[in-house]
Amino acid sequence: MAEALVGGSFLSAFLQVLFDRIASREVIDFFRGAKLDGGLLEKLEITLLSVSAVLEDAEEKEVTMAPVKAWLDKMKDAVYDAEQIMDEIATEALRCKLDAEFQTSASKDLMGLKEGVGGKQSEKLPTTSLVEESGICGRDENKEAIIDLLLSDDTNGKKISVIAVVGMGGIGKTTLAQLVYNDERVREHFDVEAWVCVSEEFDLFKITKSILDAVTPSAPCDNKDLNWLQVKLREKLAGKKFLVVLDDVWNKKYADWELLSNPFESGAPGSKVIVTTRDNDVASAMRASASHQLKELSEADSWSLFTKHAFHDGNSVLHLRLQELGRQIVEKCKGLPLAIKTIGALLRSKLDIEEWDRILRSELWDLPVDETNILPALRLSYKYLPPPLKHCFAYCSIFPKDCTFRKEQVILLWMAEGFLQQSNNKTMGEVGEEYFCALVSRSLFQQSKLGKLANLRGSLEISELQNVASPRDASNASMKDKRHLKKLVLGWNAAVTTISESKKSVLDSLQPHTNLEILEIWHYSGKSFPDWVGHHSFSNIANLRLSACKYCCSLPPLGQLPSLQKLSISGFDGVVAVGSEFYGNDSSSIKPFGALKFLSFGGMLNWVKWFPFGENEGELFLILQAFIYGSAPC
């Protein structure tokens, strides 16, 4: 698992993994089957044992002794080369199962075991703005959401808005940015555009020069002075509405972003920067005004993408025998476009059902580095982890692949192993929580899909719902099936300032089970609520809070909730009057708010009229004990 090495402090933990791999049956059988010299493995193991014997002492001294640190740096490279060899052996072992014509001589040359290991590290190819749209599936809604942000002139007082596209490696962030960048509406909206592939090295000079060259294609410059480049870039952007895409950003230093963006300040209001990253901390450092979390492809879109790459004519109907196997293979790709395309391309030349079945039962989707380009991304994610996080993440290899685990459980295990560094003002539990959140932020951990958690109990909070682009994605949470859930909190980001009817469809798709007792909805930006909010079938809801739903023009029909005891409503800027719609069904024999004991309104800036219920106002709020109204949100 841990395929990239950085700090010397991780070498000791990684060496054990390497020892285990050398002694594995898979590797030993491969050497025997390929008639390779098993003594090479023994020599490698002896060398690593010698390193391990002195490693602990070296790690302690590397901070204060430069020669020791230099030795550890070289050792890092050597151990990485050894690990690269083992990866290649594992890859060839898998291929042997599928290809009976495997050539032993070719494998010896590939692995370089006789002559030594060369520098074979795979490097991520730079990206460009060009994209073949016909080969893309399932990103239309994501594309339109980003374009809406780009074409919006609501900048919250800022000349430049940064839009972050965030997601794990292989999810399609670059592809989405390419689609948006090449859209005709976007091209017409901006005066100048620039695309820069940043990757792991945030080189201010190279990035500035790339942007300048893009906005002045007829006069590329060779000046080597950063100040001169920034002055020229500021001149070229002056008064122009521009779009800059910074693809694959890893740097989280705000000072670097501040220096890079200095020339941008001369641009016209409404200028935009798109940044793609797999780390939410990068988006924060770049002061992103909007963050679009990219999710996995749906089952249908995954299959559509697979057929484009696996079948020469793109039509699976002509290959009915392979459809069932293909769908199972696609399911194992977990909705990752890059994985789907890689496996599809592999199967394109294999239309024999036995070959597809063999691949379905193999581990080809786990092919390392040079075959998939997914693991190079994960390797970079791992490389940038602080040493304590590396230990914690490496330790998680004890869990089986695709295992679902509880955060609290993992933190306790880290604590028991001594991986958590003590802090003067934090408990060990708080340190573990911080570590865990850091790994989640880097997309190294993924939250389990809610749809599979049918027995979820207690409280559940779902935030950042503005990142849910499709009601279908919301439906996948299967909220109606969670009969044991007692409290549900649904929240959008307060920074979202646009009205969207799609939010109503998303909220409608998140309808919970009627056993729910407490419901809170925050910063909802739809004009009205779906029918389930306030429906009398929710007979157990006793506590309801609606806050900062400022675009709603009316309140939902809450009067028919038979068990509602506490109701708090605030921040409904669009509500001018409250009337019959608030009380519920006029034909019902149930008097509205029959169980309500506490009612509060706050921050209702435009509310001027409250119409009574029916002819007799005394029939309303019969057991109310407290009523609060304030100008500030409650």
TrEMBL record:
Residue ranges occupied by any NB-ARC domain in the UniProt entry: 140-313
Superkingdom of this protein's organism: Eukaryota
Keyword match Protease: no
Residues covered by the Disease resistance N-terminal domain: 10-102
Keywords: Nucleotide-binding, Plant defense, Repeat
The keyword Nucleotide-binding belongs to this UniProt entry's keyword annotation: yes
SUPFAM superfamilies: L domain-like, P-loop containing nucleoside triphosphate hydrolases
Residue intervals of the R13L1/DRL21-like LRR repeat region domain: 449-571
Record Pfam families: LRR_R13L1-DRL21, NB-ARC, Rx_N
Alphabetical GO biological process terms: defense response to other organism
Molecular function terms from GO: ADP binding
Protein name: Putative disease resistance RPP13-like protein 1
